[in-house]
């Protein structure tokens, strides 16, 4: 009798970025009527004509399948007119103080002033603890006391966002009244994962704490890698065996040139700023961030030493630009620091990435774009793997050794097998493992 359609709602999603589009498409898939609103005309036009402006696994087909009850608009009033629930999925970039810039959230809240018909406003954007209380007060002032407020943070990893929405480890719902909590839980009917219900402030903190701990695990693995380099241990063996302890687990301990992306850097700075604003110095997190800042710089220094202390007049192939494989996102990618460092040391940089299309601005405008890894490595004095694209495992490395001016690879993601690379004649450097030198 009570099919899933019983809880069908009309949802307005603000923001057609990674999170907003995935949220909108997934809610439509769950049977709700969804309108997604964005301020970028070009983005909305692409979506209206059936295109998808970002690369995210499964998203294009989900949008196409649900075209009947998933629409896109530039017009905020139109989006809100028939909505029962508003989802706020706008971005909250870092400000110079490290705090999150909430201006886009406030712009959305401003457009809701006359929306007395709403049942609830839910914020998915990552925000400092206490934001919900401020939004609540603003809504109360605007005469929206009867409209519920919820914090419903996302834990989606790019590239797996649709799966993370439909089959999450948990759905966190923070609401200070039971009706709103129930409403938001009902919207998720059909989602395969447990619901963790709590007050708004705690929900806001869960997101920041989870990302900080994940970033901590990676920086810890990177610290261990550095000590492995100094002592002759092999970090891959160490991390594997450490991860077999069920209390620790194997995840997020892959050493490399550091974490990037739209979340970890911004959210760790936001949590540090939040603590600092309260007069508390979050020293552990400060170190986690510092370790990550140093990771790409250390890689460049090691490579420079190997090249005899100079990059000037050397050509370096930079393999992988995206902050991780499976995405075209370059936000706060280690590749940006690596390319900038190489250029400022006077190197010629030839870069390759299978998905990243738009590389117009600095530092990329000063690099040469190549269509294949082999093209990037032609005549190069060194290659540095920055993103662990699976394609890089299939490169004809024997051929690469021939076409490079010098067979030197710095594997910033420990993607390749050192013995194999040495057998092909490479000097092969990686993170937390001994450098191997092939016979040329
Ligand atoms: C992350 C969180 O996983 C997600 O829950 C949150 O909502 C947003 O931030 P995302 O940024 O998409 O998601 O990517 P993720 O796969 O978590 O990787 C983040 C960064 O850490 C990447 O730069 C990746 O290369 C790096 N990383 C990850 C490592 O260096 N080592 C690891 O072991 C894991």
Short description, anyone?
The protein has helices at residues 18-29, 41-48, 59-65, 76-81, 103-111, 131-141, 161-166, 178-187, 200-231, 235-243, 264-277, 283-306, 334-344, 373-377, 397-403, 418-423, and strands at residues 10-14, 33-37, 70-73, 85-88, 120-123, 148-151, 171-175, 195-198, 315-319, 348-352, 368-369, 382-385, 408-411, 427-430, 436-437.
Low-confidence stretches: none
How much of the polypeptide forms β-strand, as a percent range? 5-15%
Across the major sheet, the strand order is: 3-2-1-4-5-6-7-8
Task: Count up the domains.
Answer: 2
Mean pLDDT score, rounded?
95
Label the structural class: alpha/beta
Top CATH class of the largest domain: Alpha Beta
What shape does the CA trace take?
Answer: elongated
State the fourth-level CATH superfamily of the largest domain.
NAD(P)-binding Rossmann-like Domain
Walkthrough of the structure:
- With 440 residues, the chain is of the alpha/beta class.
- The protein is built from 16 helices and 15 strands.
- The protein has helices at residues 18-29, 41-48, 59-65, 76-81, 103-111, 131-141, 161-166, 178-187, 200-231, 235-243, 264-277, 283-306, 334-344, 373-377, 397-403, 418-423; strands spanning 10-14, 33-37, 70-73, 85-88, 120-123, 148-151, 171-175, 195-198, 315-319, 348-352, 368-369, 382-385, 408-411, 427-430, 436-437.
- The strands form two sheets. The chain has an eight-stranded mixed sheet with strand order 3-2-1-4-5-6-7-8, with helices on both faces.
- It is elongated, with a radius of gyration of 24 Å.
- 47% of the residues are buried.
């Amino acid at each position: 009798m009570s099919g899933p359609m019983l809880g069908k709602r009309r949802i307005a999603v603000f923001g057609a970025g990674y999170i907003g589009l995935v949220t909108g498409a997934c809610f439509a898939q769950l049977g709700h009527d969804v309108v997604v609103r964005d301020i970028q005309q070009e983005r909305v036009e692409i979506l209206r004509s059936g295109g998808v402006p970002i690369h995210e696994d499964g998203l294009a087909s989900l949008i196409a399948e649900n075209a009947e009850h998933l629409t896109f608009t530039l017009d905020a009033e139109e989006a809100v007119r028939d909505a029962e629930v508003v989802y706020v999925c706008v971005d909250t970039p870092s400000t110079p103080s490290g705090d999150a810039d909430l201006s886009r959230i406030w712009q959305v809240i401003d457009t809701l002033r006359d929306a007395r018909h709403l049942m609830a406003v839910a914020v998915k954007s990552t925000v400092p603890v206490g934001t919900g209380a401020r939004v609540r007060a603003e809504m109360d002032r605007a005469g929206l006391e009867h409209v519920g407020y919820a914090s419903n943070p996302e834990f989606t990893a790019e590239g797996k966002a649709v799966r993370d929405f439909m089959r999450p480890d948990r759905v966190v719902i923070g609401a200070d009244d039971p009706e709103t909590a129930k409403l938001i839980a009902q919207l998720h009917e059909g989602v395969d994962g447990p619901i963790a219900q709590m007050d708004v402030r705690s929900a806001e903190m869960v997101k920041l704490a989870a990302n900080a701990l994940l970033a901590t695990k990676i920086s810890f693995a990177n610290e261990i890698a550095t000590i492995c380099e100094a002592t002759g241990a092999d970090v891959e063996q160490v991390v594997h065996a450490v991860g077999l302890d069920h209390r620790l687990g194997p995840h997020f301990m892959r050493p490399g040139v550091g974490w990037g992306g739209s979340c970890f850097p911004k959210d760790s700075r936001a949590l540090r700023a939040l603590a600092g604003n309260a007069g508390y110095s979050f020293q552990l997190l400060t170190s986690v961030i510092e370790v990550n800042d140093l990771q790409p710089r250390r890689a460049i220094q090691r490579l420079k030493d190997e090249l005899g202390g100079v990059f000037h007049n050397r050509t370096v192939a930079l393999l992988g630009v995206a902050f991780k494989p499976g995405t075209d996102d370059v936000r706060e990618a280690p590749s940006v620091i690596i390319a900038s460092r190489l250029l400022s040391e006077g190197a010629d940089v030839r870069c390759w990435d299978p998905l990243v299309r738009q590389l117009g601005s600095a530092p990329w405008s000063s690099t040469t774009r190549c269509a294949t890894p082999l093209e990037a490595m032609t005549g190069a004095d060194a290659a540095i793997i920055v993103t662990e694209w699976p394609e890089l495992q299939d490169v004809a490395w024997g051929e690469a050794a021939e076409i490079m001016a010098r067979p030197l690879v710095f594997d910033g993601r420990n993607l390749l097998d050192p013995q194999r690379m040495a057998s092909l004649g490479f000097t092969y450097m990686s993170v937390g493992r001994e450098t191997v030198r092939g016979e040329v």
